[in-house]
Amino acid sequence: MSQNQFTLIPTRNVGPIKISGEILNEQVTVPMATFEKPLWYSASRGASVSRNIPAGINLTLVKENMTRSCVMEGGSASEVIRIHHQLQEKSVEIAELIAKTSRFAKFESLHTEPVGNLLYLRLAINPGQASGHNMVTKAADMLISWLQTQYKNLKYVSISANFCTDKKTSAVNGIMGRGKHIIAETVIPYSLCKKLLHVTPEQLVNLHIKKNLIGSILAGSVRSANSHVANTLLACYLATGQDAANIVEGSQAIIHTELQNDDLYFSLSMPNIIVGTIGNGKDSEISMQHLKQLKCIDTEQASVRLAAIITATALCTEISCIADQCIQGKLMTGHLAIERKITNV
Question: What is the pTM assigned to this prediction?
């Protein structure tokens, strides 16, 4: 294995984005690392929209956790179902057990699913300022060992049972969440839609229905109805030292739009934002620089703040991208002009 080498990715600051709510209430300039140059311009236009709205983009935290599933084998289905029911009454014991694995880990829930003589366990913890991949796996290891002392017939099968679900598309993450669950919303006046997005609220709502909703149904999308949030997630994750593969879960995001007195209500719900402000990847010079820029270090809510900022950034790019697609040829001409300097199309 060769020594560490570093791959350079073009990075720009976009914004500032005007944000409000209990998590933060300020304007934030966001670093985005990407080879897709139009993404910077898309985020910048969405940020401009936010600055022209009194409340900007409002952010709400729904919940936060990190999950790991494991699977164990019992002697029979009846035995596994008995254990399944008994574990519902052992939350206090399990919470005390999990607390011993890390001073940061806080037990959230244990969801169990019996399948024949197999017992699948989905452990959720609050990992504090870490993303929590290793923390929850360590906790799951301890849980397995404890279960084997409580139930002698239970046998270890795997520490990861694909019910987490880590870096794979699944219904369970969209329903139960994995990471930070943030909702971003804003109301854009009719005149501002016309001035900055060059479309009416009605046009944007109509396209959202036909593209993000009906189109996603035809594609068989799982708990997802958005334009391209994975682009924004990747750009923000790379800039701040996150595990980029977690954009798989993160891309499960749902846009909701409606007309409110001729104005545009636009929301983005993201239940799987997996980020941390401490741990592997965050100690590189550039990652630390960007986290400091975002004020996402040395505070109790640093990782929640980071997830919220990323959600607001995703809303900016979603609004801009969907607006461009309302106008025939606009998306392609924009890409050609920015990426290839071609303007005569």
Answer: 0.93
